[in-house]
Amino acid sequence: MSPLELSAALVGAVSVWLSTRQSLWAWPTAIVNVALYAVVFVGARLYADAGLQVVYAALSAYGWYEWRYGGARRTPLAVSRTPARLWPLLVGLAAGGSLLLGWLFHRYTDAAIPYVDSALTATSLVAQWMMTRKLVEHWLVWIAVDVVYVPVFASRGLWPTAAQACFLVTSFGFFARPRRPMPKPTAPEETTMTSVPALCSAASWAQRLSMRAVSNWPMPWVSTPVPSLTTMRLGWMRGRGMGRRVWVSEEVGRAIPNAPG
């Protein structure tokens, strides 16, 4: 255990906690964290992870900007869900990157665990990009990655880093609920009697009838004569909690229940 690794683990833990709170300070602390870890991983011969820190630094700068200005009209970025059509692309990038990096590090370096290290590296990049876009499922990807990272770091004697990975899993599981939840669709306002005539035009069946014939037509479901369609407009609304239609007369301003559908 070195002071440098311990400092990197502490800064990383602070950065993770800030990210669960959707604080912009998560990104500058992340840049400091990856700069420290680049040196730590080179010493542990985890070259893929060392190179990953450089990409993390670039993604952290990008995420810092996106969280601040990535919303509509340069407003703060809102939390959203990952579109279903995006998942095949993300999985493909993670798998392809894992195989390519694993082959390169196995062939050209003395990496301790080239394919495992490369798989974690590629998947971490996907999770980091999702985080820059505030895609809420990035927490699930980070949890899966860090569960594997714990024994990897422990096998290399990086105990503070392994403890930090444990903290990440715990933080993601218990503290990662967004402080500002995703917007929910607003329920439609209840239809009032006064808004029904404006929303409903004359019923199509009534329009096809002769106005003259309908003017004095006795309707058995109405106790009083119905005014002429030349001065009345009919519309319908669904009875509140009753699941039945209610017809509305604009002229007389009353509801006529139990009209045939």
- Extended strand count: 3
Q: How many structural domains can be distinguished in the coordinates?
A: 2
Structural class label = mainly alpha
C-alpha-based Rg, rounded: 32 Å
Mean pLDDT: 74
Please list the strands of the largest sheet in the order they lie side by side: 1-2-3
Write the H/E string, N to C.
HHHHHHHHHHEEE
Q: Extract low-pLDDT stretches.
A: 174-179, 187-256
Globular, elongated, flat, extended or rod-shaped: what is the shape?
Answer: globular
Q: Helicity level, as a percent range?
A: 55-70%
Taken as a percent bin, the fraction of beta residues is: 5-15%
Main β sheet profile: 3 strands, antiparallel
Distance separating the two termini: 78 Å
Number of helices: 10
Strand-helix topology:
Blueprint: H1 3-20, H2 26-43, H3 47-69, H4 87-108, H5 114-132, H6 138-155, H7 159-174, H8 196-199, H9 204-207, H10 211-215, E1 234-238, E2 245-249, E3 254-257
Antiparallel strand pairs: 1-2, 2-3
